[in-house]
Structures are given as C-alpha cells and as structure tokens.
Design brief:
The protein is of the alpha+beta class. It has helices spanning 46-60, 107-117, 163-175, 210-218, 257-290, 293-317, 325-328, 330-352, 361-390, 396-416, 419-430, 456-463, 466-472, 483-489, 507-512, 516-530, 542-563, 583-590, 641-656; strands at 21-34, 142-151, 176-178, 206-208, 242-243, 250-255, 610-614, 629-632. The longest helix is centred in the middle third of the chain and has 34 residues, at 257-290.
Length: 668
C-alpha cells in the first residue's frame, strides 16, 4: 500500500490534512545586509534584529496569513525554522507587534543567540543564516530568512494536485482581493468554505495582499501608486528598502515567486501603454496619408475590432480556452498589416479616379477592391502561414498564440476587403468635400457650400440615398445654395463625356507634384541602384550586384550561426540592475552562504511500476488540473525478491556515481 496508494500524486490519491507540510516551491525569502556592503561587523544586532522582526511581522500578522501558513500540532500556524527572527523571538506573541511583540532585545540576549547560530555551520540548519566567509564561532555580516507556506491547500490531495489551481489561490495571499473573495469556477479549494478573511466585513472591503503590505512598510511607491495599473510606468521594486537603525542602516530585500508573477503582470500592463501609443501613432499617420480623420477612425476601428472578432472564432469555433498576455501582442501585427492594407485600398481608390476606362463610382470600388484583395492576400497569406508553422510547436502557449494570431490576421483581411471599401465609398459620397457633407441647416445665416464640380455619377448616387435626401434637402426658410444654383453661378465643364471622362496625368505633371522623399527616390536612389539603366542586363549594374552578393553572404553567415545555436547556459535575467529582483538578488538567494538550500540541488525521480496514465478529463490548456490517475503494471509487485533486488541495485548505481564531470566538479 505504501508503494501504490500514497497521496500527493497527480490528481487523485488519498486526501491529506491541509497545510501540514512546508511547501518546497512557495515561500517568501529575505536577504538582510548592511547598506554599506563593505562593513565587517555582525548583522545580528538588537536594532537590526528588531527591524527584521517588524518586517516579517508584516506578513505573519496579515489577515491572509492564517489561511496559507503551515499548520502546527496545535492547529495554529506552525513554527518557521528557516526564519532568522524565530530564533530570537521564540513565541508568536513575541513576533507580533500588535500584541506588544518585536521589542528591542537586550544586547546580551542577541549576542548569545547569534553566537549559537554561528556554530555547527556545516552540520546544521545554522549554516543557512551565515555568510559564506563566516568562521565557526564568528559573526556574519549578512543573513537570510525564509517564511514557508503550507501545502497542500485545503481540498487538494498533494502539492502536485491541480498545481495551476493551487498557484492561483496562493496568489491571493500576495495580491489580496475584494470581499467576497472569488475563485474561478470549478476550483477545488475549500479554505474559504467555513472561514474567510472576509468574515465580519462588508462586501467590497479590500483585503490587502502581503506584497502591498511590504510596499507600505518600506514606503515603496510605483507610478501610478494605486489601481489596476499600479507600477505600470515605474515599478515599486525600483525603490530599494532601507531601514534606518542606530548602529547603521539595514538593507532588506525580499522575493517570492508569487511577487515575481505579479511584477510580470505589472510589466505587461506597462507594455499596454506602448500598445496604446502605437495605436495613436498609426491613427495619426493614416490621417496624414488619407487626409481624412473619418477614414483614419474607421480604419482604426477595423484594426482593433479584428481582435475581439478573432477571439470569438478562437474561443467558440476552434475551442481554444487559453488566453495569456502573449496574445495581446497580436495588436501590433494587426496595426502593421491592417494599416498597410488601408493604404493599399485608399491609393487604389485614388488611382481609379485617373483611369480613362472607369466612368462610375461602382467601377472605382470594383477596381480598388480587386487591386487590394490581390495585393493584401499575398501579405496576409504569408503571415498566416508563418503562424501555421509556429502552431506546429508542442509548447502550448506558443501554439495557442500562433492560432490566435493567424485567426486575427484572417479576420483583418476580410474586413479590409469588405468594411474598408464601404467606409471609403460613404466618405467619398458624403464627406469628401464640403458639398458632400449633410448640410442640413435651419438658420438663414448658414450657407451650405456644395462642391464645385461633382461628377454626374456622384450626384446620381446622392440622389438615390434616402438619408442624404432627408438631411440635405433645403428648407424653405433657409438660404442654402443648391447644386443647380452653384452650377449656374460657377459653370464648369462636364466631368463625364461620351468617350473620355478622365485623363491620366502626364509624367511631367506627376513629377511636379512629388514630395522631397519621392524626388530623392526617383532622381537619386533609383539611378544609384540601376546605374541609370533600369532595363539593362544585371551585370551592367555594379551597385545592385554588390548589394545582392553582400546580402547573400550575410544570409549564409546567419544560417551558419543559427546552426550553432545552443541552449542558454545561464539563468534568464528578467529585470534590470536597478530593480530589487536583479541578478545579484537571485545569486544571493542561493549562493554565498555557509549552508546551502534545496534549490542548489537538482532533484530527479525514478518511478517504477507505472503502466500508463489515464487522463479522460485532461485539458491541454490547463496542464496543472485533472492530470489523471496512474494505471500500475500488473506485474509490478515490490514484495517479490527479484524486484527488490533490482530496486536496491538501482539505488547503489546512483549512490556510486561520481559527479565530477561537470563544469564545477560538484560532488553528489
């Protein structure tokens, strides 16, 4: 039974008492140092120990802590053996400032406890608190401390049971919440079933998370200081917490995987500001290019709406129920390709007005759609196929992002060839000039100026439009100049004749209208590449040949470099040096101490006797939930002598293995 029925497995097993074990993966860690790192005196002084006690009490005295701490034999929060504070303040009352705890201890008491901690550094837990250079019986000028959380949470059978769900619940401790505290539908958590931090509090009461409590304790402020976008522009972690003490300032840094995830969320929220800035920049450039705020507004609506429309198909049709911050990056793809497609259509529409064989507005629409559909299909198709290729990855988040991005790009293309033509046509008929606007006016002083030379087809389109006739028909008591009156006052040549409604502009006329960039490209850049002979053989164009050879050489170089890529050999650095969670903190959490932590060892598990896993309810998008049940091999029987012999032999092989082949010659 001990072999096959133990709890703490992947999704079933025996239900265990909640939080009776210390979590190996969820904790809050502190590193305490002198503000002046070169200071060669003990960090364990009465003033600094008191400051450490007050810091850790921010967490252990919070409203959330009783629901996440390890449970001791008395049913209350258990001891914290890796907390340096607990060695100086023995009882919970002594560590609770609200009960008169965290008092300044006498120097003799602190010296005695510190001396005790500086013994047996290599053979006991004491080495956890001592700096690497600490001598036996000496002192340490830095120390660390860890508050461990309890596991498994109530309603779960073990630490590996629905890990995603448990991680989300642990985050409530760090983030806090608003009463009543809500969990996602289907959560197995029962910790708030009979008792909750919201007991006795009105709905809407905010329960502050331990991260914000630490920010308040150290006066760490972000920009903005509060709200859903707190720290989006500047994180509170860019303020290094320092506690002033009579015997020198104490530098206190803290870390938790829960805090890191919240910081990632803040970074993503900050990046959303760049997305908003990108949207604004694209909007103004479309306005500049099209000379129309209306078309620019409609184009931005088309680009942005492609995301929720794409999400509808992503979630309901393709049944993908995973959405992460990575998916938001699709907005940049939609902005680039969507804006380019709008430019293609508007330019095609303008070109159609100068073609001799197009006589009607419908013909212009047909020409512009045909040109845009073909040109933009090539761009969209290659982009979508790149995401199809990316979607072949077995890495679920990247696969889901690729599917979502491909759908959004497809939706964007369909809108470009349907929504954009409609908007441009309506704008041309009603708003492209002062005569086309709906100039309904009731005051006699208002003059409605019509366009000087509307095309006959445009006038006919307006005449067929009920909305236009309803809004733009002059009232009897207004002084509005009608199109007929305008034509009589300002006679113009008919814009439509029997054979040649429009004439194409000459090259000289077009050159005269070019801007500075276009003139540079036409007169300087193109002759430089072609040698002034655009239709000549390639070998007569030395600049072009040199550029092609250079890019081919660069391609070969990059291809060779790509073939030599290897996995990274160092841990990814997520934050800059000015950030509290920088490379130095991560190094100090595990290295440079007399005694190491479990994180310094690589854990491996050898599982025997498993035939397969049955996962009828497993969901790829939520890998930490419903991981399934073990089906044991029918021949697996640890009571048999030969199987016990094999098991012991496997253990002996591992024990005899010498770990001296690595880069650091580390012993096993």
């Amino acid at each position: 039974e001990g072999w096959v029925g133990g709890g703490g497995g992947g999704g079933g097993g025996t239900t265990v008492m909640p939080r009776v074990e210390y979590s190996a993966s969820v904790s809050v860690q502190f590193v305490y140092e002198h503000e002046d790192k070169s200071k060669k005196t003990t960090i364990l002084t009465p003033q600094k120990v008191q400051a450490m006690c007050e810091t850790e009490a921010v967490i252990t005295s919070s409203a959330m802590w009783p629901f996440f701490c390890p449970i001791g034999p008395d049913g209350e929060c258990g001891p914290q053996p890796l907390s340096v504070v607990s060695h100086f303040y023995a009882s919970k009352e002594e560590r609770d400032p609200s009960r008169g705890g965290c008092k300044l201890l006498e120097g003799a008491v602190v010296e005695a406890v510190a001396a005790s901690l500086m013994t047996n550094l290599l053979t006991s837990i004491n080495g956890f608190f001592a700096n690497e250079a600490t001598e036996e019986g000496g002192y340490t000028n830095a120390t660390r401390s860890m508050l461990q959380l309890g596991q498994p949470l109530e309603g779960f059978s073990g630490e590996n049971d629905n890990r995603d769900d448990q991680r989300l619940i642990y985050r409530i401790l760090a983030r806090g919440g608003t009463c009543p505290l809500k969990l996602h539908d289907g959560s197995k958590y029962e910790g708030f079933k009979d008792k909750s931090p919201c007991d006795g509090k009105a709905d809407g009461t905010v329960i502050t998370g331990i991260e914000q409590l630490l920010f308040n304790h150290f006066n760490m402020k972000g920009l903005p200081e509060q709200g859903n976008f707190q720290g989006a522009l500047r994180s509170p972690y860019f303020t290094m917490p320092v506690v002033e003490a009579a015997d020198g300032n104490l530098k206190a840094r803290f870390y938790s995987g829960l805090f890191q995830q919240l910081e990632f969320d803040r970074i993503v929220n900050g990046d959303l500001n760049y997305a908003i800035l990108s949207v604004a920049m694209v909007f103004f450039y479309i306005w500049f290019h099209t000379k129309s705020a209306a078309i620019a507004s409609a184009a931005m609506f088309q680009i942005v709406i492609s995301l929720p429309v794409g999400y509808f198909f992503y979630f309901n049709v393709f049944v993908y129920h995973y959405y992460s911050q990575m998916h938001i990056l699709t907005i940049f793809l939609a902005l680039g390709i969507g804006a380019d497609s709008v430019f293609v259509y508007v330019d095609a529409w303008k070109e159609s007005g100068n073609l001799e064989n197009i006589h009607t507005e419908a013909g212009r629409v047909h020409f512009a759609i045909s040109r845009t559909a073909q040109s933009c299909f090539n761009t969209t198709f290659t982009t979508v196929m790149s995401f199809v290729a990316a979607g072949l990855t077995p890495v679920m988040p990247i696969h889901a992002f690729a599917v979502f991005a491909g759908i959004v790009m497809s939706v964007n293309y369909l809108l470009v060839i349907s929504f954009t033509p409609t908007i441009v046509y309506v704008y041309h008929i009603h708003f492209s000039n002062l005569g086309g606007c709906c100039c309904y006016a009731k005051k006699e002083s208002v003059q409605c100026r019509w366009q000087a030379a509307p095309s006959k087809d445009t006038e006919e389109a307006r005449a067929r439009d009920p909305l236009y006739k309803a809004l733009c028909t002059p009232s009897s008591n207004t002084n509005i100049v009608t199109p007929l009156q305008m034509e009589e006052q300002h006679p113009v040549e008919p814009t439509i004749t029997g054979t040649a409604p429009y004439k194409r502009e000459s090259l000289e006329s077009l050159l005269g209208k070019m801007g500075a960039v276009e003139r540079f490209l036409y007169h300087k850049y193109s002759p430089f590449l072609t040698g002034g002979k655009p239709n000549a053989p390639a070998y007569t164009k030395p600049v072009a040949c040199i550029l092609i050879a250079a890019f081919l050489g660069y391609f070969a170089f990059m291809l060779n470099a790509a073939s030599q890529l290897t996995p990274p050999k160092t841990e990814e650095l997520w934050f800059p040096e000015a950030h509290m969670h920088n490379a130095d903190l991560f190094s100090r959490l595990a290295n440079g101490w007399k005694g190491t932590t479990d994180s310094a060892y690589m854990k491996a598990a050898v599982v025997m006797g498993v035939d397969k896993m049955e996962r009828p309810d497993y969901n790829w998008f939520f890998p930490g939930r419903e991981r399934g049940e073990v089906v044991w091999d029918s021949l697996f029987d640890p009571a048999k002598e030969e199987q016990q012999t094999f098991f012991l032999k496997a253990c002996h092989v591992v024990e005899a293995r010498e770990c001296d082949e690595g880069p650091f010659n580390s012993p096993c």
